[in-house]
Amino acid sequence: MKQSSFMSFIESTINILVGFGIACAAQAIFLPMLGVPIPWSANFAFAAIMTVISIGRSFLLRRVFEALHIRRPLSPFMQAVVAERFRQVEVEGWTAAHDDSAHGWRDLARAGAAYLIGPDRYTVTDYEADEETVPVSGRLIWPWALDWWKPHDFRRDLVRGCALGIAEGEKFDRARKGKRRVEKVAA
Predict the structure, then answer these.
(1) What would the pLDDT profile of 10-39 be if each residue is shown by its tens digit?
(2) At what angle do helices 107-117 and 154-186 cross, to 10 degrees?
(3) Binning pLDDT at 50, 70 and 90, where does residue 71 land?
(4) Residue 69: pLDDT above 60?
(5) What is the end-to-end Cα distance of the chain in Å, rounded?
(6) How far is CA 118 from the centre of its chain?
(7) Are 121 and 135 in contact (CB under 8 A)?
(8) Which terminus of the chain has fewer CB atoms gathered within 10 Å of its CB, N or C?
(9) Among residues 183, 163, 159, 182, which one has the least CA distance to residue 171?
């Protein structure tokens, strides 16, 4: 996701203010050690001047780097999915370690699919059954106890389903990396 100009300014300002404090302390300690006595007011003034210059430099560089990156903007839906995945980890506590140890193969994907299908009963044509209809509901494939099944509304369920799909993909990638590491060590 692209950072706004305002957030670039805030980040740069906080970064430089921290640097201002470090610069004042460093000048007060090291300049006298180098034989350059400097009064505290001059130290403060010089640090303030350099801080203003640094804020401008940092802001401009951040904007240049943002402009140089060729990025595809995320749609509001994609942003919601990413935010939901972070919420699952940061608020709900469903960490990578939990996902790896507590859930079987494709459990997260099945849960995601359940939310994507939704709680309603749909009928879909089963082409192998001579055009008969088969009832489909997300709860039929829900991998855990039904008290964990909490559909909300269509968009929210789509967001949850996609975020759970991401969690399954991340779990798969971690497992795949682990296997490569084992193979390299064994070889």
Answers:
(1) 887 888 788 888 888 888 888 888 888 888
(2) 160
(3) low
(4) yes
(5) 40
(6) 25
(7) yes
(8) C
(9) 163
- The answer to whether 168 and 112 have CB atoms below 8 angstroms apart is yes
Tell which wins on pLDDT, 98 or 162: 162
Tokens of 25: 């302390």
What's the rounded Cα separation, in Å, for the pair 60 and 58? 6
C-beta separation of 160 from 87 below 8 A: no
Residue from 68, 65, 83, 89 nearest 171 by CA: 89
Distance CA 143, CA 20 (A): 54
Q: Residue 171 and residue 167: Cα distance in Å, rounded?
A: 6
- pLDDT score, position 24: 84
The string of DSSP codes covering the chain is -PPPHHHHHHHHHHHHHHHHHHHHHHHHHHHHHTT----HHHHHHHHHHHHHHHHHHHHHHHHHHHHHS--PPPPHHHHHHHHHHHHHHHTS---HHHHHHHS-TTHHHHHHHHHHH-SS-EEEEEGGGTTEEEEE-GGGT--S-GGG-----HHHHHHHHHHHHHHHHHHHHHHHHHHHHHHHHH-
Q: By the 8 A CB rule, do 163 and 103 touch? A: no
